[in-house]
Amino acid sequence: MKLYDLKTGTSTRRVRIFLAEKGVKLPTVEVDMLKGENKDPNYLAKNPMGTMPLLELDDGTQLAESVAICRYVEELHPEPPLFGTTPVERALVEMWNRRTELELLIPIMDHFVHSSAFYKERLTQMADVARRGHTRAQDRMHWLDGELAKRPFIAGDRYTIADITAQCALILGKNTGTPIPADSPHLARWFSEVSKRPTARA
Question: Which CATH class is domain 87-195?
Answer without folding.
Answer: mainly alpha
